Amino acid sequence: MTDLSARKAQLEARLAELESRLHKIDSDLDAPVSKNWDEAAIERENDEVREEIGHEGLKEVRAIRAALTRIEDGTYGECIDCGEEISPERLEAVPYAALCRKCAA
């Protein structure tokens, strides 16, 4: 398995990046809406996209925080359903994976 300190640093860096993006999304969503109807409609469509990106970002933040907790308690790399080892390839692709390939399917 990858060095846990390196994996932790990777997860913490991604978490910081996501939190920064989510803060920017919140700021953008709080911005005043144009008084021009056409522009306001376009802004509202853009806000819907930002909201969806924000929801996905929040899911990833929760998954990363859970992975960091698993690192701290010594269960990182174990499937939370079956207890089997999560393959190194899966953890390389999805560092916050909580399920092995079989349980994820």
From TrEMBL:
A Pfam family assignment: zf-dskA_traR
DnaK suppressor protein-like N-terminal domain location: 8-71
Zinc finger (dksA C4-type): 79-103
GO molecular function list: zinc ion binding
Tree of life domain: Bacteria
Keyword entries, A-Z: Coiled coil, Metal-binding, Zinc, Zinc-finger
Name this protein carries in UniProt: TraR/DksA family transcriptional regulator
InterPro entries found in the cross-reference section: DksA-like_N, Znf_DskA_TraR
PROSITE patterns per UniProt: ZF_DKSA_2
Classification of source organism: Bacteria, Pseudomonadati, Pseudomonadota, Alphaproteobacteria, Parvularculales
Organism: Parvularcula marina
Any coiled-coil regions, as ranges: 1-28
Residue ranges of domain Zinc finger DksA/TraR C4-type in the record: 74-104
